[in-house]
Amino acid sequence: MKVLDLACAHGHVFEGWFGSEADYLDQRSRGLLECPLCGNAEVSKRLSAPRLNLGPQAPVAQAPVASPHLAASSPAKDPGTVLSAVAAADPEFAKAWMEMAKRVLAHTTDVGDKFADEARRQHYGEAEERGIRGRATPEQTQELLEEGIAVMPLPLPEALKGPLQ
C-alpha cells in the first residue's frame, strides 16, 4: 500500500492510498482523482519523505499559516473560489466546511435542475416544505430572490455527492 500526499490546483492538500505507484499513475491518467474539498480534477503528487518507524519521536511543529484577508469588495464572484482560498489557508476551516456539507447532504433532497420550480412550489404552498438542494442558473437565482424566496449558493465537491469509501 502506498500513501501519497496529493494537492489540487487550488492548494487543498489531501492523502491518497494506492496499491502502487503504477496504480496512482493509472488513476490519474484516467481522470479518476479529484479533490475531496472542491472537486478539482487537476491533482498532483506532493513531495513527501518516507515514514520510517525508528522509535519514539518528538512531535514535529508545523509553521502557522496566515488566514487570507478577504475584503468585502473582493472581485471573486464564484463562492467556490472564495471557499477554496480560505480552505487552502486554514485546514480547520476546510474540515468544518466538509462536516457542514455532509450534514446538508444528509438532510436535504437533491431536486437537480428542477430546483427553481420546486422552491417556488414550496414557497407558494403547492408542495410540502422540505430541505432541498439542486442547480439553478444565476438568472433563476435572482428571480427567486426577487420573489422573496431565500436561496443561497453552496458549492459542493463531487466527492461528497457519491458514496464515500
What does this structure look like?
- The model is unreliable at 58-77 (pLDDT under 50).
- This protein is of the alpha+beta class and 165 residues long.
- The protein is built from six helices and five strands.
- Helix 4 (115-123) links the parallel strand 4 (109-112) and strand 5.
- Helix 2 crosses helix 3.
- It has a three-stranded antiparallel β-sheet.
The fraction of residues in strands falls at 5-15%
With strands numbered from the N-terminus, the spatial order across the biggest sheet is: 2-1-3
Q: Given the structure, what is the number of helices?
A: 6
Following the backbone from N to C, one meets helices and strands in this order, namely: EEHEHHEHEHH
Average pLDDT works out at 75
Number of strands: 5
General shape: elongated
